[in-house]
Protein 1
Amino acid sequence: MSRSFVKKSMVTLPASGIRKFFDMANTIRGVISLGVGEPDFVTPWHIREASVYALEKGYTNYTSNCGLEELRREISNYLLRRYQVEYDYTGEIIVTVGASEAIDIALRSVLDPGDEVIIPEPCFVSYKPCTVMAGGVFKTIPTREEDYFKLKPEDLEKAITPNSKVLLMSYPNNPTGTIMTGRELEQIARIAKEHDLLVITDEIYSELTYTGNHVSIASIPGMKERTILINGFSKSYAMTGWRIGYVAAPEEIAVAMLKIHQYTIMCAPVMGQMAAVEALKNGMEAVNKMTEQYDQRRNLIVNGLRRIGLPCFEPKGAFYAFPSIKETGLSSREFCENLLYEEKVAVVPGDAFGRCGEGYIRCSYAASVEQISEALDRMERFVRQNAACLKTSGMAT
Amino acid sequence: MVEDLKVRLLHALEQNHRIATKTLALMLNVEETKIQEIINELEDVKVILGYVTLIDWEKTGHNDKVTAMIDVQVTPQRDVGFDVIAARISRFPEVKSVYLMSGGYDLSVMVEGTSLKQVAFFVSEKLATLENVQSTATHFVLKKYKQNGIIFDDHKKDHRLVISP
């Protein structure tokens, strides 16, 4: 028998829980999906056109490792204009292949073996595996519905050990849609400074904030030097498939990240970078229009879920609602599987984003008003039928 | 507040007037009865003038209509300017739209008929003979690509995966 060539830690690393559910949903026809983690809009035409022009003009080459100078300058202007954080485009900003790459190189640049990464859950599916692959150890903090799934300072303080090095968080949050206000972030910042932690903040949903402006923790005095700020174009400009993101960090860390990036990726695709320049220069109007649409669908889905008996706190960012399904007596997985087979509606079980997501489901409202309405009707039927079953089985026992 | 709600409601209806009031109520965070009340009021004061459907007649195989855009030059009248003549042109059932334009001519008139001949006849007999109409230039529409913000053959398809993180 030949030996297994696969690295041991890759054998034990679990595959994404979402993947399994995707395989299941993919086999069924006529599914209405509220399970998609990307905008239902296509990239605004003027941005696509910029990329078409770039190709026509022959922009098919490598760019500098850290990205086109023009793009980095636009990113620097944008961060200052929107979030009042100042980054030097010549040494503190790297254009990456999506925010996903940024998360990876950030972790790999700062973790020594055994360093602890504190991650509030529920969270995006890649944070824990990326930590492990970078040689770190993750320590999760469960957050609670009664706190709107926000990171509480006292929970953070309790999670810190002498090995803690990084706090990795993302607000507006996928899957809960929760945000952190400036005041709440100040408390987190105080603890980070007190315990000398580095904060990696994934702000990919920053433009999709519906009640007031997004605040970046990097903008809090004294935080920039201990923050790696990650953002990108996927969600705000509906550019997921372009794979263009960026990371901004103090020069010392940026230098380290750039080494990994240059040896593994070389540079992000140039036509995507050209499109991103156009997005930053002229894309704000399209962003505002899309945000307005999301906001109305947000009301539709949250009010709709509450009406059919699935309690849901108000998500103030991203494009997800995270209702509780505890009263149905089903687990998240059971709920999602049964809903998929019985009513052909796809939503994602909350525990795919961490154990404390059990009892919840992620419903994406990056879908048309018609689709959301139809999905809500189907879910209502499902919840009612389930309640009837629960009642009869309750009487039997 | 109410004004803001009205505007948001109108924007939503302008895109799709078939959205159920129940859905609109959830979207805009107000009671269904309130939505109905506002819609009724907007209809009464003629802010909402009607609800029309955009149809690609080409696809039905029953496209027996001919459309022409006609540039009309008119002599404005004392005190009323272009309004009286424009209103008069608007009354013809063949006329689908009338706009006052800046530039080389005054009124842009869209006429719909069952044949080239019928439209040409309408222009020469009804439109050009009106008092104050100085000249007309008729342009027939050969193919429609986009109307009211909607592209006719958009091949719009959701390419996204059913589930993604």
Protein 2
Amino acid sequence: MRRVLGLLAGLGLASAAWALDAEVDVQQTSSHVAVVQGAPGTAPQEVAVDETLVQGTVHHQQTLAPGLNAEGTFWSSLDTLPSGTPQVLPAHKLDISSHFLEGWLAWEPLPGTLNLGGGKQVVHPSSGFSATPLNFASRGGRTTGAQATSSWEEGWMGTKASWFGDSLSASVFWAPSLSWDKATDDGGLKYLTSSQSNGFTQGQLGFTWGTSDVKALAFQGAGNPRLGLGVDTGWGDDWTFRAEAAGDAVSSIRPSALVGATWTGLDQQTVMAELSRDETGPTPRPYGFVRGAVKLESHVDADAWTKVNLADTSGWLGSSITYTADKWVLSGAWMGAWGDATSDAGSSPLRWKTTLEAKAFF
Amino acid sequence: MNRLLIGALLALSLVPAWAEDAPALLAEVDARRSIPDMDFELVITSYQGDKALDTNSLWGWVKAVPEGNKTLLAFVEPGTVKGRKMLMDGPTVYLLFPKTRNPIRLSPLQVLLGQSSNGDVARTGFAQQYDAAGLGTELVDGTDCWVFDLKAKAGQQNSTYQRVKLWVEKAGLKPRAADFFGSGGTLLKHAVYADYRAVGDKSLAFKLDISDGTDPTKHTVLQYRRVGRQALGDASFRRDYLEAWQPEAPR
């Protein structure tokens, strides 16, 4: 009887530490894209393509016992145009997707020192905004603004061991290869995870060097090993700096790198500038990125940004305005691209697009 | 006569050592406000005049370390910020957004809550950041007060507030108000400490009203709902542990 009471008391304490949250995001996008509608070789014409994307998540976190925590995020979406172009999918077709973004069980055998976990988790060590050289394992995901990382990205099935010292931390994430025949075996698995045709192992060291935070990464997945190094630091009350470099040894070192700085003013206006260079593709792509953001009043923020390929001077330009209330957010965004048809930004069919977005939090 | 002389000498001997020593007096002011392993529930409301613009509810934990305090914050309300976790380690601020795994480093000015910066929220002591350059007395609304002239310590010259004028009640050494000045001598913030309540053997201001130096109608009220003591392990106050940290309501 005492054991039953103890168990009930334990469950009572555990249930005291739980949280269930939900978020719904509705985006209405009107894209103006250049498409060839006649015979091949005819000049492309600009057409408007409308898309409605509704995404929702339910997130739950629960302390099961002292040192044992579980949390998960389930995601669903309705998309009227998942390909983003009317040439691939009829505009009226509705694509419905659902799966876990994350689902993680963590146990701390040595509280504050050793953390062991398993399940599904996003792996994003990069601090970059417009470019993320250290995000070796990324599943993409769509963004409405200038940021490189989507908040709706799916995690990886795997296990993780983390050790935390006084000024040094180390972690290893192992994701197995999980693949199956989508035609015959995808029935229930698709709600759990997308296939992981290539597994990977990623080790990370983090330490403080003076007033700077340093992280070192080693990644082994498909292809050759990759190494990365990142530094974040600050100066005074208004500056932060970051630098990241990653190398991928094939026949020669093919690095991607980023340096960036953010300045914040007394009225919370910020200016962010980043220079990045990506040599992992067929041709090196050097980018310059600048973003300015202001708080117009207590609930209203606005930003404007541009990203330019410094080699061919093509690029993108965008701006947004956001109203944030206690439980909902309403925003409008515009972005456009420029450059000739052979350039980085100009080779994409997108000319410009507007997005209206509403989010609600429960 | 002798008894009078002895009495006077005795009275002088009872005057604390810090009474004439501004740095020691400032350290004593800090000590009377400092609670080891403090935890709290805090509501931050920003106003334009009498109109409340927005309200944030947070849970917080403070750990005293030799270099200064470390503060952990968990955002509880409203829904648009719920789930954020923040670590303040001196002037360094780390913020972990929900659905992300890498805490990002922010400058203190990037984490304004209402019109108050993290320093306003987390500051439990002045002596760590400022030297007492002068000490005077002033009668404020009939209350005898010490007036400190504080200047940013060497190495803190790039901090937003270069000079602070601090009024402290002589009886009880309770901060009453403070003016925060920028590098050009501009008044940036005016803070009023109020609603003193006993917490253990200390008396703490449960309300801090911070107004804009140029537009006093813009002000932010930091109201503690509860202050107590709860020791979190040292590990919880490290950047890389933010991801694993699961905040629970302060008890």
